[in-house]
Write a structure and sequence with these properties.
The chain is α+β, with helices and mostly antiparallel strands. The protein contains four helices and eleven strands; from the N terminus they run E-E-E-E-E-H-E-H-E-H-E-E-E-E-H. It has one domain (2-171): Glutaredoxin (3-Layer(aba) Sandwich). The strands form three sheets. A five-stranded mixed sheet has the order 7-6-5-10-11.
Length: 173
Amino acid sequence: MERANAVTFLGNPLTLVGNPVSPGDPAPDATVLKQDLTPVRIHDYKGQTLLVSVVPSLDTSVCSAQTKQFNEAASQLPDSVKVLTVSMDLPFAQKRFCGAEGIDRIEVLSDHREGAFGQAYGALVKELRILCRAVFVIDPQGIVCYAEYVPEIAQHPNYDAALDAARAVAGQE
């Protein structure tokens, strides 16, 4: 499925590929890569509350800031919450970024190989082959509890709403 004009980048409309997910939907599975190139599936994290931060590229200021913000916030979330960042960056670039920026409380994963996560979550930007900016919270049973697709890729997500959703889900466990 393609959704024309689903998001913009610097005001220019873009097409998202895949079906969007909404609260109440089962979280789709997708295989992404860890920084050591080991494949991992989103469903491998079942049993944990997930806060999934999706960024176009760690090499941009907003994506870098978003990743740092969630890394910092992770220390104040319940232990049952796992924070993931997913981008299309190569795992080697992600590892270099995490080392340089002190990203040590979250797991940064790559969707570069197949774009499987982007397609499964309706977040793959057709024209640029990057991911749009989005945030998802998934409960331990694998149900999406929060979904935000940021309408303008160059803008920040609603950090407070995402973190509040993750805390609320973790409090229900």
